[in-house]
Amino acid sequence: MSRSIFPVLSKEDLWFAAPMGDQSRDQIGMIDGFVSTFGKTYSGDPDTLIAELKADVAIQEADTLMLTIPSQLGPEVNLRLLENFATHIAPALGWQPNTEGPTTGYPID
Fold first, then answer.
1. d(CA 42, CA 27)
2. Cα→Cα distances 36→23, 27, 31, 57, 105, Å
3. In 3-state terms, the chain is what percent helix, strand and coil (to 5)?
4. Which residues of 16-32 are buried (b: 16+ CB within 10 A; e: fewer)?
5. How many Å separate Cα 15 from the centre of its chain?
6. How far apart are CA 7 and CA 25, in angstroms?
7. How many C-beta neighbours within 10 Å does residue 8 have?
8. Are 44 and 89 in contact (CB under 8 A)?
9. Bridge partner residues of 44 (DSSP)
10. C-alpha distance from residue 53 to each of 9, 37, 61, 65, 99 (Å)
11. Which of the two residues, 18 and 64, has the higher pLDDT score?
12. Highest mean pLDDT among 23-27, 39-43, 54-58, 93-97
């Protein structure tokens, strides 16, 4: 599952990731001659994003979430986006950081 997710925590964040509301949705297009689905872009304050991501059936069913961020923003901005997501969004979705060494994964129910 791939989504662009932009937590807005500052005026600078708002400058390049203004909330899109209903304008962002899954879209169909072509990549290398193949029909492809381009995932919705989420942007907004952490509480709003958490609620929207929990309501996204595709995210809830996925076993992997890949964040897509535009490379033209530069490494400092991209690092901040990833840190904002990891700090303010991911824990509410059930993610746990691996800070204690190798992980064995989550138990399978």
1. 14
2. 19, 8, 6, 19, 30
3. 40, 20, 40
4. ebebeeeeeeeeeeeee
5. 18
6. 17
7. 20
8. no
9. 7
10. 17, 18, 11, 11, 24
11. 64
12. 54-58
pLDDT at residue 46, rounded to an integer = 94
Name the token pair of 41. 């872009």
Q: Do the bridges between strand 41-44 and strand 34-38 make them parallel or antiparallel, or are there none, so unpaired? A: unpaired
Q: Collapse the DSSP code of 95 into the 3-class scheme (helix H, G, I; strand E, B; otherwise coil) and give the result.
A: coil
Paired strand residues for 59? none
Cα Rg, the chain, nearest whole Å? 15
Q: What letter represents residue 86's amino acid? A: A
